[in-house]
Amino acid sequence: MSTNHTSMNIMMNTEGNMKGLKYILGLLIIFSAATEHYTQAGDKGVLITDIGVGGTGYKLLTNYSFKESSAVDYGLMAHVGYNFHKSVGLNLEFENRNYLAGDSVEVDKILSNRIGVGAEFHMINKPKFTLSIGMLVGGFTFNYNVIDSTNTYDIKASGIYQKIGLTSRFYFGKKNAFGLFLNGGFVNNPMTYDSYEYNNEQQDYIDGILVKDHRVFSRGFYVNIGLTYNWRIKNYY
Known about the structure:
Elements (H helix, E strand, L loop, with lengths): L2 H4 L12 H14 L2 E2 L9 E17 L2 E21 L2 E12 L6 E21 L2 E19 L4 E21 L5 E11 L2 E8 L2 E3 L1 E2 L2 E2 L4 E19 L4
Antiparallel strand pairs: 1-13, 2-3, 2-13, 3-4, 4-5, 5-6, 6-7, 7-8, 7-9, 8-13, 9-10, 9-13, 11-12
């Protein structure tokens, strides 16, 4: 398999995995039973939930080639945050991403699932609008499965990603609980190959290099948009 082939002919795929998002939705239903449905996003004791879609543009560089390439992903995201102090909160994020793939190969799947934790500071906290800055660190898996005219390739990889970005939320109605969010920022998304199968046979090397010595350095900018809803945690004591 050529270096360019393994390091991503990434331009068009539509298959997704909804399981992780369903788990997040289930958690949100449980949270709603213990909350009040009116609040301001930057206040202490507020649970912030975001569900949306987004995409990321990357620049890629491998440790075995000096040739830079690019990639684009898109998919679903869910975010839950809790403000333990006025204007400061902790976040949990889940993302399911599909990568776009080139027309020269038949793509079975190019998928990435990510989960991360972080912190968010609300710089502007008004009833109808909030603006915050946040940082996040998490883990992810990556699966690249491709079929060409004669062969199949399956690469699994994983890594630790980091994000920093801005999030704005716009609220509607008298209770200022429901609205829209928009966020964007920078992501560092490096990965290391975990395994490689060629024609359904496990391989130890790619182009003479150990599979687990292959690394992809991936950095870019992301944008997400979707629905947001806030709850204030009830005080039972």
